[in-house]
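Moderator note: this is an archived Q&A kept for reference. The question asked for a predicted structure of one protein chain; the sequence and the answer are reproduced below.
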Amino acid sequence: MIAVGEESRAVLTGRTSDAVAELLGQRATVFPSHHGGFLDGEFGYPGKPDEFAHRLREVLDGVA
C-alpha cells in the first residue's frame, strides 16, 4: 500500500507517493492531515490522530 496525507499531496513526498502508486497500477491511499497526521501536536505540527486512526482501521479491515 502506498499512502499519502491529504494535506501533503502537493508537496514532493505526496507527489512521489501518487506517482509510485500509479506506476504500480494502484491509487495512493489517502489519510487525514499531513505527512505526520498521526501526531497530536507534541512536536509543534499537530495532525488529526483520531481521524487518522479511524482511517487506518478502515484500511486494515479492508473496508476502504
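Archived answer notes: The chain has a mean pLDDT of 90.
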